[in-house]
Amino acid sequence: MSDAPNDARAQILGGIRRSLRRGELSGEARGAVETRLADPPRGPSVARGQLPQAEKVALFCQWAETLNATVARVGSAEVPGEVSAYLARNNLPANVAMAPSPLLDGYDWASQKMLSIRRGRGEGSDQVSVTGAFAGIAETGTVVMASGPDHPVSLNLLPDTHVVVLREADIVGGYEDVWGRLRARYGKDLMPRTVNTITGPSRTGDIEQAMELGAHGPRRMHILVVRD
Amino acid sequence: MESTAHAFKANVGHALADPNLQDSLAKLKVGFSERRRQAAERLPEFEALRDRARDIKNHTLAHLDFYLEEFERKVIGLGGHVHWAPTAADARRIIAELCQSVNARTVAKSKSMVAEEIALNEHLEALGIAPIETDLGEYIIQLRNEPPSHIIAPAVHLTKDQVADTFLEHHAKLGFDKRLTERNDLVAEARYVLRQKFLDADVGLTGANFLVAETGSSMLVTNEGNADLSNTLPRMHIVLASIEKVIPTLEDAAVLLRVLARSATGQESSAYTTLNTGPKRREDLDGPEQYHVVLLDNGRSSVLGTEMQDILRCIRCGACMNHCPVYGAVGGHAYGWVYPGPMGAVLTPQLVGVEEASNLPNASTFCGRCESVCPVRIPLPKLMRHWREREFEKHLTPKAVRQGLAMWSFAARRPALYRRLTAMANRVLALFGRADGRYRALPLASGWTRFRDFPAPQPGGTFHARWAKRKS
Hints:
A: alpha/beta, 7 helices, 12 strands, elongated, B: four-stranded mixed β-sheet, 24 helices
């Protein structure tokens, strides 16, 4: 591709080592950073998210609403009905693009006679998407999406309205708990192509520093927090 | 972009005389900085997190070669590519070749200050490839053919009315021929116009807030979602990042994220924080087929191990400029190059040369607000002082200043002479009267008194004389 790419690499790494007045890391010094990488130390603990599970759920809902999402707390049998009702309340079409996920397939969508569902990736013309979530973060009311065949990233971004189905058991305190779950699911060091952590609808402060909702991503985010 | 940092004084003159700019800058005090204060107060651990953020960056810089190699290994392991670019020209060439390899006509670009640093847009345009800025602020200034004036809010120098005029001028041909007056209508129009461009783009180019060595991920923090559309819809995703963006682990990212958004806009969290790791997996339904990371040095490796190393901790939040009285008076364009405000006053001389940019580290009152809000505790005033020293060593300081300093140092090293001279100056100044405690004009000092008063000596003699009297 470019001329002698290995020279460029050697030039940069050599320049760094010259400036740091040492050669390539070796011995004990290398062992210490390898250990730090293998067993990452946590930063100062943030007390806000460290709560019993029920209070974590409540804190998640409170922050999500503060940061412009809407939240409905429902039982699992009520999920399809709440999706239909939300669309009706907001005068949105009863057509949704849904993530092809086993979790979502477990709900009784057939009960919603008026709801038309397309399963697949997001398209430019989609008005509403329905997806699951890998986790929720209580500290900031953030939902976490891990990409995969059951969760195309485009569904998080293209529609005007994003409806998220999040189980209470998947709500954790802070980012560190999400990293733990990612490592448990995908293996240490391995990641899905994309992990989106999303806090409320898309927004911009680029005109006169005033926050306006609905920049490029969804204008509305509705989160169904599902009791186990 | 071509630097006009050498013309700082002239730039400042224009900035102070621009009423739209002054209106926009007035909002900084009640906007970002007030919101930052509130956000910091809401999080009791904020100061401890800043200490930790500083330590993480220091640790990384001391082992930068190791973490870059580790990052590279992980990216390649997942089917991505890493390109090393010692200079801006190398980075431009690599990116252009990547775009040409897929016959790209358009590139959806998410705001990247490093792309500004290497003047990427001009290079791509010259090759017939159209870069489309998708961050709202960047889009506005791309239409206006202006450089960004702030590292996180590139159009912060413009008023809503100026944006409305710009949109009318450029969108009328697309059928939007009504001049808008509301901010949310302007946002909606830009969203509509840019949506199709995302869907049509061949390449998505983003920067990175962090590169995570542990996982080989690039991490992007945005509010609009434009970076995510850029890294998901086109068939090639190129990440352009400078080498000091690497951090060790996801745990370290958690610390840095907690201070980044709060320092930048006073938000608890930005709307989108995204980790991208490699290209689309075989079974994925969307995502780019190719994932490339371009690592740019451009002089940074030579800053390591020097008295300037602390600037490499910078996470580009913009808090230093939001709180800077000089930036607040003149805005970002006056600084003349890509990075304005205090962090720019330290970084720009490094990147374009102290000969070109020596005005910038001098454009500071050393009030220290920048250092007091910096999430990674960069001692910005100290670093600006280092530049002033280097400027002096290189004999770049203006002749009058050098002569004045030489005279002062001659006297200061001779205490008896110094006391006689200051006592004399005190008496001479007293001749001009000291009724108000200040002078509006003084002979031979119009350079000072044209813009501000000169304090009058108080009765009772010089400080030395009064101190001696007090002790006896």
